[in-house]
Amino acid sequence: QVQLVESGGGLVQAGGSLRLSCAASGRPFAITWFRQAPGKEREFVASIRWSSGIASYANSVKSRFTISRDNAKNTVYLQMNSLKPEDTAVYYCAADRSLSDLGKYEYWGQGTQVTVSS
Q1: Could you tell me which residues come within 8 angstroms of residue 19 by beta carbon, excluding any fewer than 6 positions away?
Q2: Taking a C-beta distance cutoff of 8 angstroms, is the pair 19, 25 a contact?
Q3: Strand runs (DSSP E) across 8-64, as ranges?
Q4: What whole-number distance in Å separates Cα of residue 106 and Cα of residue 86?
Q5: Are 5 and 109 in contact (CB under 8 A)?
Q6: Contacting residues for 116 by C-beta, under 8 A, at least 6 apart
Q7: How far is CA 38 from the centre of its chain?
Q8: What is the DSSP string of 66-104?
Q9: How many angstroms separate the CA atoms of 59 and 111, rounded?
Q10: Are residues 34 and 43 in contact, defined by beta-carbon separation less than 8 angstroms?
Q11: Rounded CA gap, 5 and 110, in Å?
């Protein structure tokens, strides 16, 4: 079992920054951030493989968002800079336990709201 707890959301003006945290119990193989805006489909934001640190990003956030992990704290961060109103959404982190489970996203956090005002 993997438990995930997100934090760090809030209200920020366009152009501002926020850092989201996803604290994990245990050491998942990979953590992925998704977001879902009202009335829209959930979309991929960024992911990181824990042991290698290999990261990938959606084109819409590349160069603005950075995903990283802190092994000592068992936490993955999503640093979000140059925020835009269209980044407004509930952000979720999801975990895969192993390489063979990659993409199954078996475990989810409760979500954290990010609101960017124009």
Answers
A1: 8, 77, 78, 79, 80
A2: no
A3: 10-13, 18-24, 30-36, 43-49, 55-57
A4: 27
A5: yes
A6: 11, 12, 13, 14, 16, 83, 84, 85, 86, 87, 88
A7: 18
A8: EEEEETTTTEEEEEE-S--GGG-EEEEEEEESSGGGTT-
A9: 22
A10: yes
A11: 7
Percent of the chain with pLDDT over 70: 100
pLDDT tens column, 24-55: 998 899 999 999 999 999 999 999 999 999 99
Nearest of 24, 12, 29 to residue 108 by alpha carbon: 24
Give the chain's largest Cα–Cα span. Answer: 42
Residue recorded with tokens 């999801």: 94
- CA-to-CA distance for 65 and 114, rounded, in angstroms? 14
Using a 10 angstrom Cβ sphere, with 0-12 exposed, 13-18 middle and 19 or more buried, the burial of residue 16 is middle
- Burial of 93 from C-beta contacts in 10 A (0-12 / 13-18 / 19+): buried
Backbone angles phi, psi at 99, to 5 degrees: -60, -40
